[in-house]
Amino acid sequence: MIDAVGNPQSLLLLGGTSDIALATAEKYAAQRPLRIVLAARESERLDAAAERLRKTGSTVVTVPFEARKIDTHAEVIDKAFAEGDIDITLVAFGVQGDNEQGWTDVETAREMAEVNYVAPMTLGVRLAEKLRKQGHGHLVVMSSPAAERARRSNFVYGSSKAGLDTFFSGLTYALDGSGVKVTVVRPNYVHTKLTEGIKPAPMAQQPEQVADVIVDAVRKGKEQVWAPAQMRWVMTVLRHVPRVIFRRLPF
Prior knowledge:
By secondary structure, the protein is of the alpha/beta class. Helix content is about 45%, strand content about 15%. It has nine helices and seven strands. A seven-stranded parallel β-sheet has the order 3-2-1-4-5-6-7, with helices on both faces. Strand 2 (about 35-40), helix 2 and strand 3 form a beta-alpha-beta unit. Helix 1 (about 20-30) crosses helix 7. The longest helix has 29 residues, at about 105-135.
């Protein structure tokens, strides 16, 4: 169970090599050792992530996970919950993709849709069932400001994140009264492996800064948060910019 000050006893990181997910786990583990399940592709990166978290004194197990192999997701979730209840699940996997290929190449578009939307949605259905049965838990999902209004340079990625964002925002209503909470996190550009090679946007964040936002949001039971918080007001303005002007903005 999550204690009175928001600290969990167990974590499930779907996207267990994510820089943001690992930084979040370390924030929690600094308060007390945890039981952590890392679900990701089998690789040296996954082994290194597990070792990194074991140094916090936490018990860490790994579960092989491929986002696009939808028919394996039930087994992944069953294995993740095999040792007991999960207090916080962080859905932190995704692909940025190449936007120009995304709207001209079917396979690129399909990969972004399957990894960023279809896989999180189907996992969300299974996780909601598990968490409702245990009667508690917090589900945190990584979205993006692009889900609110995508630019010319990222509209394929933004469309996939919009689907994810809408689904998990809806879960906040559907799970009301069940003891299960959902938080949708919309971070601005974050310096991670996912964004390597992409020009940083204004107000760029480090993984540890986003982790602070996640920890605070879970503690306060917030359903939607932006990182940094100022992005909420930036996106409020951008959502209302007329299309004829928005399409001419230099980004």
